[in-house]
Design goal:
The protein is built from 14 helices and 17 strands. By secondary structure, the chain is an alpha/beta fold. The strands form four sheets. A seven-stranded mixed sheet has the order 4-12-11-10-7-5-6. Strands 1-2-3-15 form a four-stranded mixed sheet. A four-stranded antiparallel sheet has the order 13-14-17-16. The termini are far apart. Keywords: Aminotransferase, Pyridoxal phosphate, Transferase.
Length: 421
Amino acid sequence: METFTQLESEVRSYCRNWPVMFNEARGSYVYDDSGRPYLDFFAGAGSLNYGHNNPELKTKLIDYLVNDSIVHSLDAFSVAKRDFLKTFGEVVLAPRNLDYKVQFPGPAGNNAVEAALKLARKYTGRETVISFTNGFHGMTLGALAVTGNSMKRGGAGVPLGHTATMPFDNYMDGQTPDFLWLRSLLEDSGSGLDKPAAVIVETVQGEGGINVASKGWLRGLSALCEEYGILLIVDDIQMGCGRTGPFFSFEEAGITPDIVTLSKSISGYGLPMALTLFKRELDVWEPGEHNGTFRGFNPAFVTGTAALNTYWRDEVFCKETLAKGDMVGDRLAAIAAEYPEAGAHTRGRGLARGLAFAQEGAAKAVAAAAFERGLLLETSGPEDEVAKLLPALTTSVPDLEKGLDIIDESVRAAVKVPLAV
């Protein structure tokens, strides 16, 4: 590890919890340089919904590269981009009656969010964007301004303005706000809230602790935005591409956002790629007004197209994910029920799941114990109070059960509960 210690910045984080040298990866497993396997319930923070080195996608990628096909093209036309756009329109947009334009804003999720915020402000001529408690939208300045985590916000080094924070669903003592609070602010000229350009929301807050917004809350938010002429942005960077079952996480609520951000698993292979989708009438960009060198990474178009063709031409994959998610949720609930003294409880939808603890340090201890037993987990939430499960959607049921067995063992080993009197 000396090379990393000597040369790499102290900002590195995941390697501190997983102090091994990873070398290979296949399906739902990664292997260190000694050959030890680790079952992966992290999946590149949701970037590997179809597993590591998925053979269907890898074959397409290798064929593309072997033929000296173009790799870098900025926003010039290319066959790979054409094929991706055509497939995305046919497989994703048309069946859902979504008349969205597609923007390639850059390689990462924060690029998609920055483009969404910038477009909303340009279209409306307004500045303020409403975000929600415990939301996370990226580490660049615009995205940080709508992110709740104080540690991450503190790294900006400058004021983060032109935003307003409102309570997420269930934030206030488990209550579901009915939006009277926001309506009152919008109606009162003395509230101090300028009419917003947009609202940005995650339907399930991943980094914020696997906090799930109810369908009713999302529908109420959508209706309020429509009533007041506020654009609704859904950040589906981590929860999109099937993580909650349907391709988009907002489908279950029956809403149609004005703008949607996608990244992480949209390339299907862990390759950098991001999309900003928006209703056709919002496309008020001037040519080159929002730019970037790595908007046309053609290998990602190739694997993204392969993922759509392989998994999203019918409803089978969605149904399998929902069934797996129910199984994982039931098992986690059974584990949590054994530790009421630690305040253990479950959260999540689909294959985005969390085992949360009121006991300080419990989730981090569980993740550490799981790593020792060959399972990769991360934690989330403002106090790292949630052991977070993001397995690849292609993970087999036996491997899911194996991982849950390890979690069960890890909780028993790590969580301290008071002795019975």
